[in-house]
UniProtKB/TrEMBL annotation, chain A:
Cofactor: [4Fe-4S] cluster
GO molecular function per UniProt: 4 iron, 4 sulfur cluster binding; metal ion binding
Binding annotation for [4Fe-4S] cluster: 169, 176, 193, 232
HAMAP family: UbiU
Annotated protein name in UniProt: Ubiquinone biosynthesis protein UbiU
Gene name of the record: ubiU
From TrEMBL, chain B:
Protein source organism: Microbulbifer okhotskensis
Job description of the protein: Required for O(2)-independent ubiquinone (coenzyme Q) biosynthesis. Together with UbiU, is essential for the C6-hydroxylation reaction in the oxygen-independent ubiquinone biosynthesis pathway.
This protein's name: Ubiquinone biosynthesis protein UbiV
Domain of life: Bacteria
GO-annotated biological processes: ubiquinone biosynthetic process
A GO term, aspect molecular function: 4 iron, 4 sulfur cluster binding
Names of the cofactor(s): [4Fe-4S] cluster
Length: 331, 296
């Protein structure tokens, strides 16, 4: 099982390599990737450096170009694919079928991975992308239960990668417009969700308010830990009740399922967090490296160590983790 | 300009569904989309019942009947439902995910793509047309400028449909938010979404209507209303306007849009709603506050 790790900068990439990543995924510094945040990602010079470090250590480099290309600037997305091919990246991670068609025609030897943003959840959907564009791997959306992942792996025509750890999208990826409804910018169009430029923190009396484009997302009392106002993790009023109506601030952690995922034939585990610091990448990657090695050596006797759990909880939203959709009761 | 009734988003009782569609027969709609698009657990009408409904309606009307597929497939049961719809043998199918696109294109059948299929550029349109797509309902978050960009760049255009009235489907999840609101898991949801025939409103702590919860789906808190943009929709080459089924007062909505196409456009006939997405702004904004919007 390959451990696929995030890097939003060279120091993060080095941290991922040093701590045991088999592959590192990066994006270019523009709206062609789904972590289009200021000061993050790779220009041409840094991408070359990234490649050099990857090759020196015998790891793989994947480039995420996983937003949906705009008609007027389609060439920007094409150029991103060309740059990844020019780097000799081991794969590009794509979501847009327009762009996949281009990549396949122009760079027939470039491996294509289907991004989670394409939201393929069934064998025929995977077959669509394999037949049309020759994808070799697909990243599954975080909407399937463990049993559904097992069934899909058995029926799939391509190798599958699943999310192990990181920020939890509770909506099917690539099929959520909540962010553009409130702020005008979305993961599909702009590579951002609940963008930082729309965020306001306001101290009002004894409370701290978080707003997105003026819309109140949450209010925190002094003793509460105020989190980033990701839209789906705010507190709202439903039927007179104030609650985390969609989801609480929490991160996904599927480590406990590693033996089952391996047995099912899952080929790769993805860690989320290109927007996170090198320190996060170091700690989370090292923890997952140890866990995967443990599963590979001891198989069914695998137990999540307390030390691992603590490290992951410390690096989670709201300091808590969940099995998410893998676990039916969460649904 | 044709008027289409989109697929119903909410979970209504069988009798209510049947009455609703019977009432639609006497309206000036041109197209009726039928089928469950949100949750494969909803069983008031299963796939076979929707096919039967299609047959009954088709016998009674010349309106085009289109069958819509589920949007988010999770289980084998969901996939089987989609297969039954795709294998119907009579009617055009609206594919709401790539599973349906694959099944329909393998069977060499023409199909339409619903708004949750991610088509954002001309290359994607052309690719899907090469596989049999004859009609494209534009993603709800796409503005008129990007849409024009797509259409201008297409060598060959499909029929183009725009979501013009109703609460917009914004997101789909593994989690059922209606069940969660009632402290239930999805596996034991007790079909509580049936208690909310126009969804369960979710507001900010300041009382601003943000979203509508509908089982695993999240809709916009406000209804989109592009009536005042009717002239511009015509100019941009839109072929079909989609009106989303409402629990009540569907006929006046259809009537208001029908008047527009008979040169009797009156935006005051309907509540203002929102039009932000169409104006390339956040979806919840209302740009054309009153009167008839004109092209910039």
């Amino acid at each position: 099982m390959e451990l696929v790790c995030p890097a939003g900068s060279l120091p993060a990439l080095e941290a991922a390599i040093d701590n045991g990543a088999d592959a590192v995924y990066i994006g270019f510094s523009d709206e062609t990737n789904a972590r289009n945040f200021g000061g993050l990602n790779f220009n041409d010079k840094n991408a070359l450096r990234a490649l050099e470090r990857i090759r020196n250590r015998g790891r793989k480099l994947y480039v995420a170009i996983n937003t949906y290309a705009k008609p007027d600037s389609f060439t920007r997305w094409q150029a991103a694919v060309d740059r990844a091919a020019g780097l000799n990246a081991d794969a590009v991670i794509l979501a847009d079928i327009g762009l996949m068609g281009y990549a396949q025609r122009r760079h027939p030897d470039l491996a294509l991975h289907l991004s989670v943003q394409a939201s393929a959840t069934s064998a025929p959907a995977l077959e669509f992308y394999r037949q049309q564009f020759g994808i070799r791997r697909a990243v599954l959306p975080r909407v399937l239960s463990l049993k559904q992942v097992q069934q899909l792996t058995a029926a799939s025509c391509v190798e599958l990668e699943v999310f192990g750890f990181g920020s939890l999208c509770i909506m099917a990826e690539g099929r959520c417009h909540l962010s553009s409804y409130i702020t005008g910018e979305s993961p599909n169009k702009n590579g951002v969700c609940s963008p930082a430029k729309a965020v306001e923190w306001r101290k009002v009396a004894n409370e701290l308010e978080t707003r997105l484009n003026g819309v109140l997302i949450d209010r925190f009392a002094d003793h509460e830990n105020a989190g980033y106002p990701t839209l789906c993790k705010g507190r709202f009023i439903v039927d007179g009740k104030r609650q985390h109506a969609l989801e609480e601030p929490t991160s996904l952690n599927s480590m406990a399922l590693l033996p089952e995922l391996k047995a099912a034939g899952i080929k790769a585990i993805k860690l989320e967090g290109r927007q996170r610091s090198p320190a996060y990448v170091s700690q989370v990657v090292r923890t997952w490296r140890e866990a995967i090695d443990q599963v590979l050596q001891h198989g069914d006797d695998f137990l999540v160590k307390d030390r691992w759990q603590e490290t992951l909880a410390k690096n989670s939203e709201g300091k808590q983790t969940t099995l998410g959709a893998y676990d039916r009761p969460w649904q | 300009m044709q008027l289409a009734l989109g697929p119903a988003q909410y979970y209504w009782r069988r009798n209510d569904i049947n009455h609703f569609y019977e009432a639609m027969l006497s309206t000036p709609l041109d197209i009726i989309y039928l089928g469950e698009v949100v949750c494969g657990k909803r069983h008031e009408l299963r796939a076979a019942d929707w096919l039967e409904r299609a047959r009954i309606l088709a016998e009674a009307t010349d309106k085009q009947i289109v069958l819509s597929t589920l949007t988010l497939l999770e289980s084998n049961a969901d996939l089987n439902w989609v297969r039954k719809i795709c294998d119907n043998g009579n009617w055009l199918v609206e594919a709401n995910d790539m599973s349906a696109v694959q099944l329909l294109s393998e069977a060499r059948l023409p199909f339409t793509c619903g708004p949750a299929v991610n088509i954002y550029n001309h290359k994607a349109v052309e690719h899907l047309m090469s596989m049999g797509m004859v009609r494209w309902t534009v993603p709800v978050e796409m503005g008129s400028q990007q849409l024009s960009g797509v259409l201008n760049a297409c060598e060959k255009k499909p029929e183009v449909e725009v979501f013009a009235y109703g609460h917009m489907p914004l997101a789909y999840s593994a989690r059922c938010f209606t069940a969660r609101h009632h402290g239930l898991d999805k596996d034991n949801c007790a079909y509580r979404c049936m208690e909310y025939p126009h969804g369960l409103p979710l507001a900010s702590q300041e009382g601003e209507e943000l979203f509508v919860i509908n089982g695993i789906q999240t809709l916009s808190g406000e209804a989109v209303n592009l009536l005042s943009h009717y002239p511009q929709l015509c100019e941009r080459g839109i072929d079909i306007l989609r009106l989303s089924p409402q629990w009540q007062q569907m006929a006046p909505i259809i009537d208001a849009f029908d008047r527009a196409r008979r040169d009797d456009l009156d935006p005051q006939l309907l509540p203002p709603g929102v039009d932000g997405y169409w104006c390339d702004r956040p979806g919840l904004e209302l740009i054309a506050r009153s009167g008839i919007a004109t092209s910039e």
